[in-house]
Amino acid sequence: MWGRMKTAGKALLLAGGLCLAGAGLAMAQPVDKVTQPAIEILDPQISYTADFWFSDGAGNRQRGVVHHVPGRERREVTMRDGSRQVLLVRRDEGQAYLLMPNQRWYLGLGYEAAAQLAGGLETMTITRRAIGPDEVDGVPATRYEATGEGPQGRFTGDLWLSEEGILLQAAGSVTVDGRVKTFETGLTNLRKGSVQADLFDLPDGWSGLQLRNLSPEQIEQAVRMIAMMNSRR
């Protein structure tokens, strides 16, 4: 479970998939090229709900629902066995949670540690150059040729952004720890507008484990132990 989430999470986060596009141009940049922090593409300043899909080069495919408001995001996925997983990102509070509704259980992480597990998201930059106008699921978009650089990985591919800066689609490859993985991800049925506030709250009465004060390496070790214990039940 953790392996699938980590792999998909790295690809989504590195490429701008899973959390202020249109930020100002970096100093001394050509007018047709923009360099900006990757997190600005993941956290556009507009609220929306949409269906999302993600596929990798190995033929694995996931579908789910994303709810986004600036600084907060909730992604819900139904796994092959019918169980549900929810990734809740509270950048505004420096927290991230993996929720397992079937078990009424959660795993809490510090946002910075979660970002590092996803390939050093907070320090990654994206450079993009406009190719031209396009359309994604009926939504007008601009297609960009893009590269991303970070301490733990590199992204090369294309991004499709709406006029408000919503990442509608991304396709390309992610290189992490020397391994290259291809992927595609996108949104359908986009609905712009207010999102129910309590969707971003940790549910009352659930059991959980808070790993906020642990390093990314310690978190990985703890999650492996939890997975081993669960497999023996």
Rg (C-alpha, Å)? 17 Å
User: What gap, in angstroms, lies between the N and C termini?
Assistant: 15 Å
Q: What is the CATH top level name? A: Mainly Beta
Secondary-structure element order, N to C: HEHEEEEEEHEEEEEEH
Lateral strand order in the biggest sheet: 1-8-9-10-11-12-2-3-4-5-6-7-13
CATH topology type: outer membrane lipoprotein receptor (LolB), chain A
Helix/strand class: alpha+beta
Our count of helices gives 4
Average of pLDDT: 79
What summary fits the major beta sheet? 13 strands, mixed
CATH architecture: Clam
Task: Pick out its properties.
233 residues; alpha+beta; outer membrane lipoprotein receptor (LolB), chain A; 13-stranded mixed sheet; 4 helices; 18% helix; 47% strand; disordered N terminus; disordered C terminus
Can you describe this structure?
This protein is an alpha+beta fold and 233 residues long. It has one domain (2-231): outer membrane lipoprotein receptor (LolB), chain A, CATH 2.50.20.10. The protein is built from four helices and 13 strands. It has helices at 2-15, 38-42, 111-117, 216-231, and strands at 33-37, 48-56, 61-69, 72-78, 84-90, 95-100, 105-110, 125-136, 139-149, 153-161, 167-176, 179-192, 207-210.
Summed up:
This protein has about 230 residues and is α+β, with helices and mostly antiparallel strands. It has 4 helices and 13 strands.
